[in-house]
Amino acid sequence: MKKRLVPILLALAGLAALLFATSCGSDSKASALTALPAGEARIPEKQIAEAGIVVAPVAMEEVGAELILPGRLTFDDQRVAHVFSPVAGRVMRLIASLGQHVRKGDALAVLVSPDLGSAASDMAKAKADLDAAQRDERRMKILFDANAASARDYDAAEDRFRQAKAELERAQKKAHLFRADVDGEVTQEFTLRSPIDGEVIARAANPGMEVQGQYAGGTAVELFTVGASDRLWMIADVYETDLARAKVGAPVMVRVVSSPGRTYQGNVDWVSGALDPASRTTKIRCVLDNRDGTLKAEMYATAVLKVAGRKALAVPRTALFRMGDATVVFVRTGKAADGSVKFSLRPVQTDDEGGAGPVPVLHGLEAGEEIVTSGTVLVAGKVSR
Questions:
Q1: Neighbours of 28 (CB within 10 A)
Q2: Where, residue-wise, is CATH 2.40.420.20 in the chain?
Q3: Reduced to 3 states, what is the DSSP secondary structure of residue 318?
Q4: Does 154 have pLDDT greater than 90?
Q5: Class (C level, CATH) for 67-77+228-310
Q6: Nearest Cα to 370, choosing from 326, 335, 337, 338?
Q7: Hey, which residues does 101 pair with through a beta bridge?
Q8: Tens of pLDDT along 228-274?
Q9: Which own/partner contact pairs does 202-206 have at CB distance under 8 Å and 24+ positions apart?
Q10: Sorting pLDDT into bands at 50, 70 and 90, what band is 372?
Q11: What is the pLDDT of residues 6-46, one digit of tens each?
């Protein structure tokens, strides 16, 4: 009986060994099939459709049609006035307050000034001297015509008349220089007035403050700043490399952080003729309508300048994926034996100008290659490391 069991046991042992060997062989083949090269992903067609992964060929696109420029808002320098006092004196009272809208000629403050009193007195005296000299000249002419006065006396009277006339003109010009509106009245009250329509945006004058006049030989202090804010300038910096593309008349869209989602339209109306030697940039300017008052001078702004584009090999911004310090795309490289689609990670070098359009590719891709343009995050998660 024992002799009969031995061959059976040996046969069973051989069968078990054969099954084990077959199992090990199939496992090694399966592992060989599942092992992928680094940087490659395989995704079934069905999963691609369900995940919304989009693949498109690389082609030549128009790029660089926008320049994104940093800028700031300023007053139109022809519509802002820095108001100084032409006369020395003391601020007696303030009339205009900060933020107040004033018209040209409106009073800003009243000063007491000995300079104004002196100018008014000089003009009144000059007028009186001119009247006296004119009467004397007429009287001497009558006497001279009647041979009752000498030519020398008549000439002297004419000279005094001309001197008095010149002195009155000097006094009038001095009073006009001080903007003194007096007609023979001697006064020391000087009214400081706005030279333009606008808003009082700064005020340094205070009641009782001693001020130096512009024509007194000292250093005058700016008492008021009046600016018209219904129209503002946007000044932006253009780098030297983009200067040839920034043309007068080009449309500009301006955005500010205080008005999210809103754009202000304008056109380039001036390009500076010089570069800043430190930043290697030049200035451009456009005028913005601000009748609603939402923009403020000295706000920072972002300007999108519309310029002529150029043709270049480009990809959508959604096709780019950052992996560490590298920028990569996922290229479709064919199909695997099991029917899944193969994708290969490809580093690329781009010329990203920060716009919203396609991104030019300098190295790493050829025209016609198919890349993932949507769903790059899903493909990146399946790439073997």
A1: 10
A2: 37-63+311-382
A3: helix
A4: no
A5: mainly beta
A6: 335
A7: 199
A8: 989 999 999 998 888 888 889 999 999 999 999 899 999 999 999 89
A9: 202/98, 203/94, 203/96, 203/97, 203/98, 205/91, 205/94, 205/108, 205/109, 206/91, 206/94
A10: very high
A11: 444 444 444 444 444 444 444 443 443 456 778 899 999 88
- Average the pLDDT over 46-56 and give the result: 89
Global pTM value: 0.58
Domain with CATH 2.40.30.170 in the chain: 67-77+228-310
Q: Which two tokens stand for residue 189?
A: 């009250």
pLDDT-based confidence at residue 175 (cuts at 50, 70, 90): confident
Out of 3.40.50.300, 1.10.10.10, 1.10.287.470, 2.60.120.10, select the CATH number for domain 114-185. Answer: 1.10.287.470
Q: Which fold, 37-63+311-382?
A: 2.40.420
Q: Which amino acid is at 260?
A: P
pLDDT at position 218 over 90: no
Residue ranges, comma separated, of all CATH 1.10.287.470 domains in the chain are 114-185
Scanning the structure block, which residue is given the tokens 């493909």?
379
Distance CA 173, CA 160 (A): 20
Mean per-residue pLDDT, 304-311 = 78
- Is residue 90 within 8 Å of residue 211, measured between CB atoms? yes
Instruction: Give Cα 327 distance to the centre of its chain.
Output: 30
Read off the pLDDT of residues 56-85 as tens digits, 9 standing for 90 and up. 999 888 776 778 899 999 999 889 999 999
Which run of H or of E encompasses 47? helix 45-51
The DSSP output letter for 330 is E
* Angle, alpha carbons 108-113-114 (nearest 5°): 165
